[in-house]
Prior knowledge:
Elements: E1 4-16, H1 17-21, E2 32-44, E3 47-51, H2 60-67, E4 72-73, H3 75-81, E5 92-94, H4 100-103, E6 113-117, H5 118-127, H6 134-137, H7 145-154, E7 158-161, E8 165-169, E9 172-178, E10 184-195, E11 199-205, E12 211-217, E13 222-229, H8 238-241, H9 260-274, E14 281-282, E15 294-297, E16 303-308
Parallel strand pairs: 3-5, 5-6, 6-7, 13-14
Antiparallel strand pairs: 1-2, 1-4, 1-16, 2-3, 8-9, 9-10, 10-13, 11-12, 15-16
Amino acid sequence: MSYSITNIEYGIGPWGTEWLYGMVGNPKPGEEENNVHSVTLLQGEGRNILVDTGIAASNPAKKALWDSLITECNGVEWALEQVNLKPEDIDTVILTHAHIDHVGGMEVMTNAHFYIQQAEFEAWEKMTTQPEYQQLTLPAAFPPDYPVIRKMIDEGRVTLLNGDVTNLLPGIDIHVVYNCHSVAEQIVVVNNGENEGETTKVKVANEAGHVVETELTSGSSERKVKYLIAGDVACRPANLVGMGDWHAFLIPILGRSGSARNVAETYQWILDQIHGDMSRLVLTHDVTMTDRFESEPLDDLLHIHYVVK
C-alpha cells in the first residue's frame, strides 16, 4: 500500500525566533520568521485521509481569533479547494493534538471519522474549564470546541486511542510522544513501498542547518519507506540538527506544555526513523518546506507541497 502525501498551507504569520528555536543556541535572536499553518492529505485506494483539520474559517469566531494572530488565514475549506476537494470528501481524520489549529475544522468534516489520543483530548477538555490553566490554553485552545468534540465521541464519530497503534489504517501507524509540544501528540507514520535498486533523491540537513540534496539507492527487493507527519513537535528541520555554530537540538518554546528533554528524545527518534532524510518529514508550521519538496505557489505567501505524488 502506498499513499500520495500532499501538504497544503492555509495560513501564515510571523513568530519571534525564541518561540521557534528557544533561547540558548538561537541562531537569530530578537528576529521574527514566518510560521505557516497547514494540513496534510493522504490519498490511496479511494480514501481521503486528512492529518489535522486546520481552522474552519467559515466559523466567524475562529476566523476573527486567527486573523488577530497571523497575517493570513484562509482556513481548511479553502485549502481543500486547492486540491479539488470539499470537507465532506474527507473520510478519515487523524488529529495530531487538540490545539485549535489542529481540531478547529472538525465541525465542517461532516462525513469523517476522527482519531485522537484519549489523554490528549481529555487533558485539554479539562484545562479549558479550569481558569488556573489559562496560560497553557490561550490561544492554543478554543474552549467551545471541546463540548462539540465530546458530542462527536458520544455519537461514535471520534475514536479515543491509548498509545501507539500499528496499522491504524493499512500502512499507517501511530507513534505517540508525551508531554512535548502537547500532552499526548500523535506522529503519523506512513509506510510506502520502494523497489530494489531504485535511486531516489533525498534532502538532508547539513551541519549548518541548510537542506542539501543527495542520492540513496535501495538495496532490498522491496522495503517500506517511512514518511512522518510530525505535527508541532518541531517547527523546522533545524530544530533537529541545529543551525550555524549550534550542532545540537534547538528546542522551541512554541506552545510547549511538556518537557524539553522529552522533545529532544523525540527528535532523536524521528532522525532514526527517517535516517536523517528531511524529505520524509512533514511539520505543520514549517515555512522551509519549499526547500525540500516539489511545491506550487497558491498565492503570494502560501504553497502546496507534493511530498509523494
